[in-house]
Design a protein that fits this description.
6-stranded antiparallel beta sheet; 485 residues; 5-stranded antiparallel beta sheet; 15 helices; Phosphatase 2c, domain 1; alpha+beta
Length: 485
């Protein structure tokens, strides 16, 4: 198989407006036994959480940890394209179910979710999977600068359903409804439908993963201009330049960027070896006609079914025996396919390491209204004015600390703030007969505040919930009282 040596760096920043960072990322590599070439390769991932207060960062943290655990649990053997594609979709779906289950156990996190983009580098190829509007760009000598992912959003469907066009992409970026996504991980009413694309890599190619805090603030052309530097800027410098550009344009959202350069590719691709080893047999019939027998294909299918069963058993065993462990930051270092890389936070750091107190969480504005069921998912954490401003840039680089071991499936506890998520508040409103309150969408803020305090709700979140209902042109119809018709 082809082994890849990557030079990778990552940077995350809370931006100029937000009080906390709901993004998460991981850079992860699994070596084979005795450093042979049968390890599953390198995994890169960015997740952009939503849900307000601490819920968004919890959702993105759960997604990253879930995918990382699944990747670490993979058996050491050779993987083929269809198998990797299906595994990426399974990783994302399993992360989705983990978020939904956590929200069911913790009602104050109802409505949380996250977008995700995953790149699995293996056998000289990049397998790119995503759900939501987090993105992956690829710079290649053959294809130039390319946006591989397609946003799962209404504006993408409106402007770019017929194919990518830079002018239309810019119109979509500036559209007032660009924050409405059609799927994510964590929506209890709708399972995500992840997509996967494959790109063959060459030496000199560059992969760029980002949350929408980057591409919502600067255009694809600006991203290309910074990323495709003829002077040969390192991934670390490119990450820094992209984050600074997003913040200089307003920094209305958290921004996370991973940049990975393909330095060297060695070895022969698995596909070529498989073809040479399994040349189909040709049968001749009486009239001289030839027919190719698909014996080798059937053998591969049988082999695949056996291996899937083996994966399931091995995955269950490895998952139960794993603990969460992070290794110090290797930003900007050379990443060989046979070395371990992991500079991101463990789940304990996601909840405890950012030193946020409850007062700050209660003061933070509700950032997302995500209706339940099949309605659109509205990310209201983007300000409509995206014109550039000369605001000083405040760096907030995520740094991994010492090695951390956290017991599996345990989440650090924190003081419970008031219910601070618009979607959860809507759900609470729906469960009671608040017809009078719901009719008063134009009532004074002080009246809303008094009513919210009596219900142990965050007043600002109630206002945001009511405004969200107005913006969606939805008329709320409360349930009848218990025992009613």
């Amino acid at each position: 198989m082809i082994s890849a040596i990557l030079n990778t760096s990552a940077l995350t920043n809370k931006g100029m407006v937000r009080n906390n960072n709901e993004d998460n990322y991981t850079l992860h590599n699994e070596a084979g036994v005795n450093n042979n070439s049968t390890g599953p390769g390198t995994l890169l991932m960015v997740a952009d959480g939503m849900g307000g207060a601490e819920a968004g960062e919890i959702a993105s943290g759960i997604a990253v940890e879930s995918v990382k655990r699944a990747f670490s649990s993979l058996p050491m053997h050779e993987y083929h394209d269809v198998e990797i594609t299906n595994l990426i979709k399974k990783f994302l779906l399993d992360a989705h179910y983990a978020i939904v289950e956590d929200a069911r156990r913790n009602p104050r996190r109802q409505g949380m979710g996250t977008t995700a983009v995953v790149v699995w580098v293996y056998d000289g190829k990049a397998f790119i999977g995503w759900s939501g509007d987090s993105r992956c760009y690829v710079q290649s000598r053959n294809r130039g600068f390319e946006l591989v992912t397609r946003d799962h959003s209404h504006v993408w469907e409106q402007y770019l359903s017929g194919g990518y066009d830079s002018d239309l992409a810019e119109k979509a970026r500036l559209d007032d409804h660009s924050n409405i996504i059609t799927q994510c991980l964590g929506d209890e009413g709708q399972d995500p439908r992840p997509e996967v694309e494959l790109r063959r890599l060459q030496e000199g190619d560059r992969l760029i993963l980002c949350s929408d805090g980057l591409n919502s603030m600067i255009s694809d052309r600006d991203i290309e201009q910074i990323a495709v530097d003829p002077g040969g800027s390192s991934p670390k410098l490119v990450c820094d330049s992209l984050v600074r550009a997003a913040n200089a344009a307003g920094g209305h959202d958290n921004v996370t960027v991973i940049v990975s350069d393909v330095l060297k590719l060695t070895g022969a691709p698995l596909a070529e070896r498989a073809f040479k080893e399994s040349t189909p047999k040709t049968l001749e019939f009486g009239g001289g006609a030839r027919k190719t027998a698909a014996i080798s294909k059937q053998q591969w299918i049988l082999f695949g079914l056996v291996m899937v069963a083996a994966f399931a058993l091995a995955g269950l065993f490895l998952y139960d025996s794993m603990s969460i462990q992070d290794i110090g930051s290797l930003e900007g270092s050379k990443l060989n396919a046979d070395t371990i890389l992991e500079p991101k936070k463990s789940i304990s750091e996601v909840f405890d390491g950012q030193s946020k107190d409850v007062d700050e969480l209660q003061k933070a504005p509700t950032t997302t209204q995500k209706p339940l069921g099949n309605q659109p998912i509205v990310k209201t954490n983007q300000a409509p004015n995206r014109e550039a401003s000369q605001t000083p840039i405040q760096d907030d680089v995520a740094k991994a600390g010492d090695k951390i071991n956290t017991p599996k499936n345990t989440l650090p506890s924190s003081p419970k703030p008031k219910l601070d998520d618009s979607a959860a508040i809507l759900n609470k409103l729906k469960s009671k007969n608040f017809s009078e309150e719901c009719k008063k969408q134009g009532m004074e803020c002080e009246d809303i505040r008094k009513w919210a305090e009596s219900e142990d709700l965050n007043p600002e979140s109630v206002v945001a919930a009511l405004k969200a209902m107005e913006s969606l042109n939805k008329k709320f119809t409360p349930l009848p009282p218990e025992g009613g018709n």
